[in-house]
Amino acid sequence: MGQGPQQLQGLIRQLVLLPGSDATPRLCPSRNARLAELSIPRVLKRLTEKPDANDVLKYPYEADMKVTLGSRPPCTKAEGVQFWFDAAQKGLYLCADSQWVSVLTAKTKLDYVEEHQSLHTNSETLGIEVFNIPGVGLFAATANRKARSAIYKWTDGKFVFYQNIATHQAQSWRHFTIGKKIFLAVANFGPNERGQEFSVIYKWSPRKLKFTLYQRIATHSARDWEAFIVDGEHFLVVANHREGDNHNIDSVIYRWNPSSQLFEANQSIATSGAYDWEFFTVGPYSFLVVANTFNGTSTQVHSHLYIWLVGAFQLFQSFLTFGAADWEVFHIGERIFLAVANSHSYDVQMQAQNDSYVLSSVIYELNVTAQNFVKFQDIPTCSALDWEFFSVGEDHFLVVANSFDGNTFSVNSIIYRWQGYEGFVAVHKLPTFGCRDWEAFNTTAGSYLIYSSAKEPLSRVLKLRTG
Ligand SMILES: [Ca+2]
Ligand SMILES: [Ca+2]
Ligand SMILES: [Ca+2]
């Protein structure tokens, strides 16, 4: 690979490059050089996989194929098959009928992140919800520990303060819509000034251009709201964490009553220190999964997955979890995964041996034949509180909120990249402090991540560098 930096001719199998030994950084010494280095072996890997019947890879690709790396060579009726890999654009072209035809167009690749904005918040922030109001803009609602939580509006490429809302140890916000109505529900962990515990649904007023109080719902140390639709009906479910010292209480599903225009209790589900609900569908089936954190003596409890059958959610599968704080569902192609964030292994009886924050969080995959989720991958985490899945081009990523290792809140959160049969592989470390929640979002200017800190009044927006 050392010779001729502009043009290299050879057989395609000679192009399988070892990481770091690749000449493309010298071909295009730009700050994007690493991208070329990343993408060549991937492109070639696909090339060497079994060819699709209907694509150009049916050509015999060992014997007579020539690859040119570098600037565009002439495309003539040369003998054999001629490819050109455009290292700058990361595209692979085939010479056919005297024309270069794109074979594998370069896809957007992630070159990781850069600091974009330090968002100073009212107080420490737990959950962050990013949402769009059509015709108005992009917003972020932060669930702040102290007396009020804030809503920010994306203005000139940054989040700018927009509205304060009185909350009580707010844990998370959930945005949802019903028809044209736009709502935002907050999970209040603490009681109000009069000792009453309520979580509150706010509605966007198109006239005032603000969120205004819509409905209060009695909750118990609420951690999370999830909004979803089943059979055309709108629902909300709250994660009731505990009532006094009792963690084994009901969480409640509420159904939107179109006549009263209010949410009404519809089904109660027994939970143990419920922390998070996640709704998803698989084909015609609707599922709801709860993260159970603690039963009063142990964090080693089952978290349960429910399926909607004949008008109610019924137990479908149970997972042993360790202080489960978040479930994240995501799709990669046809495959469906569920990731749990395990935050703490603790058991009153085995306290000394067993109190740990450094433990595995688990990714499960739906096995359609067996009709259940099976363990796909263990990922070591440090008191994981959130998983966020996002995609860049054709690549898929998970970022984990690592919050605590038993000694310090200064721990790295990690981005993992989907690498097919290798599963998720750690590709990038991000120093975080008491990291609580990650959200991915897009604007016309690019893709971003935002994360909150439950330990300092500072959230950060990161811009994804893509090439
Ligand atoms: Ca949730
Ligand atoms: Ca999540
Ligand atoms: Ca999140």
From TrEMBL:
Domain of life: Eukaryota
InterPro entries in UniProt: EAR, EPTP
Ranges of the EAR repeats in the UniProt entry: 111-156, 158-206, 210-258, 262-310, 312-368, 372-420, 423-466
UniProt KW Magnesium keyword: no
Swiss-Prot/TrEMBL GO biological process terms: signal transduction
UniProt keyword annotations, A-Z: Repeat, Signal
Pfam families given in the database record: EPTP
Name assigned to this protein: Thrombospondin-type laminin G domain and EAR repeat-containing protein
The species this protein was found in: Myodes glareolus (Bank vole)
